[in-house]
Design brief:
The protein has 332 residues and is an all-alpha fold. The chain has a single domain (25-56, 69-323), classed as Ribonucleotide Reductase, subunit A (Orthogonal Bundle). It has 14 helices and 2 strands; from the N terminus they run αααααααααββααααα. It has helices at residues 25-36, 41-44, 67-70, 74-109, 113-140, 148-159, 163-188, 192-222, 225-242, 259-263, 269-278, 280-299, 302-308, 317-323, and strands spanning 245-247, 250-252. It has a two-stranded antiparallel sheet. Helix 1 packs antiparallel against helix 8 (192-222). It is globular. It starts with 24 loop residues before the first helix and ends in a 9-residue tail after the last helix.
């Protein structure tokens, strides 16, 4: 039987706050907005609509322009498209559950009452996102296991014994990646049900990043010496995990478990590797697309946020430049 749960040990202090006055008016306004913007997955969205036959536009992906793909039957092409979409959405689902758990920790560990109340509001937002993605994926195909790299990131955030890295890892890196990936998918999907679900979720996510930035701006400014450097290091490590790199001719980090989907329609990893060797142009196109996607994920949200809270600075900027996420890749 497949493993249906993972236990994570999370040493963390719980902090009571006895001053009930509003310390951060901007954060209080975000809390008001969170109450105003609540929506019900079951009733706000019409789930009776069928999902479009072609969920995502696969023509943008180099893999779907190869002889290997063209050799598939029409039924297998159809199944691959839906399964690949289900795999991508499954990673969103797992990330939302991770956010649900981290925000539960922040209710305990955040030192200020305003932050605790916003974290509590976000807990319900994340539960709603889990519900929405679960409904959509099970209607589409099936829920795929969590990607090992995503699990590593969520575990690192959950296991940390300080609250500041939890904000950076979840509210800035994970939520920033989520918004970029949601926008990318919403742009490419041909399914109106998915477009609507993503639109509602993205509105919540934008508020979450705002909440994280407000909490971190004050907190990071108070960190000195080793504590500040440790947070800078953690931010970079979290970003580094998310970027696919080629080491000794093999991809490393990033989200690589999507190749498992191809096996379900009769394409093995060896088939893909053989195609790479036969078709260097495809390998180059795949590499260029990966770089552009990585840049797209980081440039609009994560990098500006990390700059604003001084986690990208004279000490760390070269790290991100070497990682290739400081600016958009030039158009081909």
């Amino acid at each position: 039987m497949a493993q249906d749960r993972t236990v994570v040990n999370t040493p963390l202090e719980s902090v009571f706050h006895w001053d009930y006055s509003v310390k951060f008016p901007q954060m209080d306004r975000l809390y008001e907005n969170a109450k105003r913007d609540q929506w019900n997955v079951s009733t706000t969205i019409n789930w009776d609509r069928p999902i479009e036959k072609e969920v995502l536009d696969m023509t943008m992906m180099p893999m779907f322009q190869t002889e290997l793909y063209r050799s598939l039957s029409e039924e297998n092409k159809y199944q691959l498209g839906r399964k690949f979409a289900a795999w991508r959405l499954s990673q969103f689902l797992h990330g939302e559950q991770g956010a649900l758990m981290v925000c539960g920790q922040l209710v305990d560990a955040a030192p200020d009452l305003d932050a605790k109340m916003n974290a509590a509001a976000q807990v319900f937002d994340e539960a709603r996102h889990v519900e929405g993605f679960r409904k959509y994926i099970t209607k589409l195909d099936r829920i795929y296991p969590i990607d090992p790299t995503l699990e590593r990131l969520l575990r690192a955030i959950l296991e940390h014994d300080r609250w500041e890295p939890k904000y950076v890892g979840m509210q800035i890196v994970a939520e920033g990646l989520a918004i970029a990936a949601f926008r990318f998918m919403q742009r490419d999907t041909k399914d109106e049900l998915l477009k609507e679900l993503l639109e509602y979720i993205m509105k919540d996510e934008a508020r979450h990043i705002g909440f994280g930035m407000l909490a971190l701006r004050d907190a990071v400014s108070k960190l000195k010496g080793k504590d500040k450097k440790d947070l800078e290091d953690f931010a970079y490590i979290a970003c580094d995990m998310m970027v696919t790199k080629v080491v000794d001719g093999k991809p490393k980090d990033g989200f690589l478990s999507g190749t498992d989907v191809f096996e379900e329609v009769g394409i093995s990893i060896k088939d893909i590797e053989d195609e790479l060797h036969r078709n260097p142009a495809w390998a180059a196109a795949e590499n260029d697309m990966e770089k552009q996607f990585n840049s797209f994920l980081f440039v609009d949200t994560i990098i500006p946020c990390l700059r604003q809270i001084d986690l990208i600075n004279d000490r760390t900027e070269s790290w991100y430049q070497q990682l290739g996420v400081m600016q958009m890749a030039p158009a081909a």
